[in-house]
Amino acid sequence: MKYRTFGQTGLKVSEIGIGAFPISGVRQQADGTRTGWTGTDEQQSIALIHRAEELGMNLIDSAESYGTGHSEEIVGQALRGRRDKWVIATKVSPNSGLDANDPDLPTQAEKRIVEAVEGSLKRLDTDYIDIYQLHAIPLEGAMPAVMEALARLRDEGKIRWYGVSTNDREAIDKLRGLGEIHLLQIGYNLLERDADALLHFAKQENIGTLIRVPLAKGMLTGKYFQSSEIPKEDIRHERFNRPGSIDAFKKLPALGFLAENSGRTMVQAALRFTLDHPGTSCVIAGAKTMQQIEQNVAAIDVPSLTESELQKAFAIADTIQTPNWSAN
Q1: Does the global pTM surpass 0.90?
Q2: DSSP letters along 61-104, please?
Q3: Are 93 and 113 in contact (CB under 8 A)?
Q4: Alpha carbon distance 179, 111 (integer Å)
Q5: Considering only CA atoms, which of 161, 34, 152, 39 is closest in space to residue 90?
Q6: All domains in the chain, ordered by first residue
Q7: Does the annotation count 128 as an active-site position?
Q8: Nearest residue to 124 (alpha-carbon basis) of 162, 157, 91, 95
Q9: Taking Cα atoms as reference points, which of 307, 328, 320 lies closest to residue 224?
Q10: Degrees (nearest 5) of the Cα angle 263, 264, 266?
Q11: CA triplet 231, 60, 98: central angle to 5 degrees?
Q12: Considering only CA atoms, which of 255, 170, 161, 177 is closest in space to residue 210?
């Protein structure tokens, strides 16, 4: 494993981390429907986190909304007795339950953040969260209160560093005008490259970055180059079956050349692409099996995409309409 300094935090993070959305599995929603990530098992998820640790990974990214908190609970179980070996990142939905027209919005927004932190701490079974992120842009009238709440929670030692998960540069600038932003979680992959300038900005400002959806929710794994069929209760089902997505899957096999006689699989080619951006601190890739976690880690040592490979891949990618995975 190789490690990079995470912006101004000084944390040393593994180049590849775990995106913990898939391990939340399929859960029943408030409306009675069941949705989430199919093909998961709790004990297997705990075991793969332990295997990731053996391979040198030290960062895992979750969220209170992943499986309505179930992802955080699994992370907490997996890291029991080994907390000091990991950098835990998680996220809060800052606008959940809030009304933009509420005259008491600032107070309610602050309460939302404080209660969310306490909930995540309990589920993660930890006294502090290393990296705490806003999972959405706060309501305009709530922004100052949210940033104040984050600063206070840091002073109290409940969170160490904080930032926001978004590709919206304008929103990032607004938040930075109200307080510190130590890190950004940015959606970026071979099919969705609009965040290139934002990553260069983060590098210039010494802001740590977590790269989400590096495999475009599976579209870049090669698994769906032959068929885009996916169980109806899988959270990706609706987006995979949009007209534009169906057309995209027909074009994806053209990217297979990146794994032919190259010393890398398609997964590793996609991860290597994100790792090679100078603004990248850590790439967070989801995994549901031991094989997937091991393949992800192996991407660190595969050859980078050549300039000719990149140009050919970009030409193909630009004809493919994605389900907009990079958007938050």
Answers
A1: yes
A2: E--TTGGGGHHHHHHHHHTTT-GGG-EEEEEE-TTTT--TT-TT
A3: no
A4: 18
A5: 161
A6: 3-317 (3.20.20.100)
A7: no
A8: 91
A9: 320
A10: 150
A11: 75
A12: 161
Residue with tokens 């209170």: 64
Q: How far is 137 from 109, CA to CA, in rounded Å?
A: 12
CB contact at 8 A, 52 and 7: no
Show the tokens assigned to 105.
């919005």
Encode the chain (328 residues) as per-residue pLDDT tens digits: 999 999 999 999 999 999 999 988 777 777 777 777 877 888 999 999 999 999 999 999 999 999 989 999 999 999 999 999 999 999 999 999 999 999 999 999 999 999 999 999 999 999 999 999 999 999 999 999 999 999 999 999 999 999 999 999 999 999 999 999 999 999 999 999 999 999 999 999 999 999 999 999 999 998 887 777 888 888 888 888 888 888 888 999 999 999 998 899 999 999 999 999 999 999 999 998 999 999 999 999 999 999 999 999 999 999 998 888 888 6
The Cα angle at residue 172 between residues 37 and 274, in degrees rounded to 5 = 50
Are 181 and 164 in contact by the 8 Å Cβ rule? The answer is yes
DSSP line for 210-269: EEE-TTGGGTTSSTTSS-----TTBTTHHHHTSHHHHHHHHHGGGGGGGGSSSSS-HHHH
For the beta carbon of residue 5, count every other beta carbon within 10 angstroms: 13
Catalytic residue among 66, 132, 162, 188: 66
